[in-house]
Design a protein that fits this description.
By secondary structure, this protein is mostly helical. Helices cover about 60% and strands about 5% of the residues. The longest helix is centred in the C-terminal third of the chain and has 27 residues. The two termini are about 25 Å apart.
Length: about 120
């Protein structure tokens, strides 16, 4: 798997897990890949995956059932949506709109682009 060089790999793994939950690939209450399985699938050190999984557990997106493995938390979807929306509104949207203004893209063009996607 190709990772971005400007962002720590464990944060990119967190994004991958969140995306799997958002898209429904990993359902609420479902067991997820073990640290070793995930590390093998993305070809990274298991310690990197463990760091990502630890953060996801702290954020209550996944949880550990002792002896059984890691599972998607009941509130994972709401937690992820809240975090991603806040990030989009505070960081990504302002950059997007600044670029749109610089390029003199009209509201109508933006609305049409939004509707077409």
């Amino acid at each position: 798997m190709q990772f971005q060089s400007d962002k720590p790999i464990y944060l990119q793994i967190i994004d991958i897990v969140m995306e799997k939950i958002l898209t429904g690939e990993w359902q609420i209450g479902e067991k997820i890949l073990s640290v070793r399985e995930f590390a093998g699938s993305v070809e990274v050190n298991p310690n990197t995956v463990m760091r990502a999984y630890d953060k996801l557990q702290q954020d209550e997106i996944i949880f550990n059932k002792r002896g059984l493995g890691l599972f998607v938390s009941d509130n994972a979807l709401q937690t992820i949506l809240k975090e991603k929306k806040e990030n989009f509104i505070q960081i990504e949207a302002p950059k997007f709109f600044q670029t749109a203004k610089l390029l003199k893209i009209t509201e109508e063009e933006l609305i049409e682009l939004y509707k077409s996607n």
